[in-house]
Design a protein that fits this description.
275 residues, alpha/beta, TIM Barrel, 8-stranded parallel barrel, two-stranded antiparallel ribbon, 14 strands, 36% helix
Length: 275
C-alpha cells in the first residue's frame, strides 16, 4: 500500500489557549510546531493565521510570516486555509492563495457548524477554484456533508478542479456528517476515479477514523484544530504527540509515514516558490 500522508492541522480558527495551553499561535510557534510534526512523521502542515491576541486573520502578510517560519525549519508541504473563521467574507478568506502556496483547502458547500453556519456560496466556491488554478495551487476538497460530493463532480466536469482530485472528509462537526465509520464509507464510495483522500475526525473521532482510513488506503489529518485531547480527559501535550501516534499505527499496518517529497509525488504537486 502507499505510504501514509499525515497532515498536521496545528491551530485552526476556533481553539483557544484556555482550552489547549500548548496551542501554537505566533508564526514562530507555528513554525516550531511544524518542525516537531515533521520529525514525528507529518508530510503536510495545514495552517490558520492568528493575530497576537489570538483572533483569526486571513491577511496574506500573516500567512507569509507563517510560511517563512515553517520553511526556515523544515520542508513540509504548507497547506493554507481558505475556510478562515465563520463570518469572514470570501474576499478575506481567499487572500492567502495570492501567495501561491503548494496547497489550499477548498470547502465545497455551506453547513451548520456547531452554533454557527459556515457559508460557501456556489459562486464563491467556483471563484476560489479559479484563483487556485491561476496560482498553481493544489486544492484539497473539503467535504463536511454528503451533498458536497456532487459539488466536487460539477467542479471537475467544468474543469475548475484538475484530476486526480484530493479530498478531505471532515467528519464529526456538530451539524454536519457524524464521525462514524458508516459516514466515511459512504463518502469513500462516492469518490471520482483516481482520487486520493484524507479523513479529519473531529474530537474523539480523530483516532478511530484515522485508524480506519489507514486500513482502507486513505490518509489522515490530526492536530489541535480538530482535537485537543490525547485520550478522554487528557489534553495532548503537542501536535507532534498526535502525529507520532497515528504514524505508529500506520507502521503497524504497513503504511509508514510519507516524506514531504513522497507526498508531493503522490498528490501531483509541483514545488513552488511562494510569491
Amino acid at each position: 500500500m502507499n505510504p501514509l500522508i499525515i497532515t498536521a492541522a496545528l491551530t485552526g480558527a476556533e481553539v483557544t489557549r484556555e482550552q489547549q495551553p500548548a496551542l501554537p499561535i505566533s508564526p514562530e510557534e507555528i513554525g516550531q510546531a511544524a518542525f516537531e510534526c515533521a520529525r514525528a512523521g507529518a508530510a503536510i502542515v495545514h495552517v490558520h493565521a492568528r493575530r497576537a491576541d489570538g483572533s483569526s486573520t486571513q491577511e496574506a502578510a500573516a500567512y507569509r510570516a507563517i510560511i517563512d517560519a515553517v520553511r526556515a525549519r523544515c520542508d513540509l508541504i504548507v497547506q493554507v486555509s481558505t475556510g478562515g473563521a465563520v463570518g469572514m467574507t470570501a474576499a478575506e478568506r481567499i487572500a492567502p492563495v495570492t501567495l501561491a502556496p503548494e496547497m489550499a483547502t477548498l470547502s465545497l458547500g455551506s453547513v451548520n457548524f456547531g452554533g454557527d453556519v459556515f457559508i460557501n456560496h456556489p459562486a464563491d466556491i467556483e471563484a476560489f477554484a479559479r484563483a487556485m488554478a491561476e496560482q498553481g495551487v493544489k486544492p484539497e476538497l473539503e467535504v463536511f456533508d454528503a451533498g458536497m460530493m456532487a459539488t466536487a463532480q460539477r467542479l471537475l466536469k467544468k474543469g475548475l478542479v484538475c484530476t486526480p482530485a484530493h479530498f478531505d472528509f471532515v467528519l464529526g462537526v456538530p451539524g454536519a456528517m457524524p464521525g462514524t465509520a458508516e459516514a466515511l464509507m459512504y463518502l469513500r464510495a462516492q469518490l471520482p476515479a483516481g482520487s486520493s483522500w484524507t479523513v479529519a475526525g473531529i474530537g474523539a473521532a480523530q483516532l478511530t477514523l484515522g485508524t480506519l482510513a489507514i486500513a482502507l488506503g486513505g490518509h489522515v489529518r490530526v492536530g489541535f484544530e480538530d482535537n485537543i485531547h490525547f485520550r478522554k480527559g487528557e489534553l495532548a501535550t503537542s501536535n507532534a504527540q498526535l502525529v507520532e501516534r497515528i504514524a505508529a499505527i500506520g507502521r503497524l499496518l504497513d503504511r509508514p509515514p510519507a516524506t514531504a517529497d513522497e507526498a508531493r509525488a503522490m498528490l501531483g504537486l509541483r514545488r513552488t516558490a511562494p510569491n
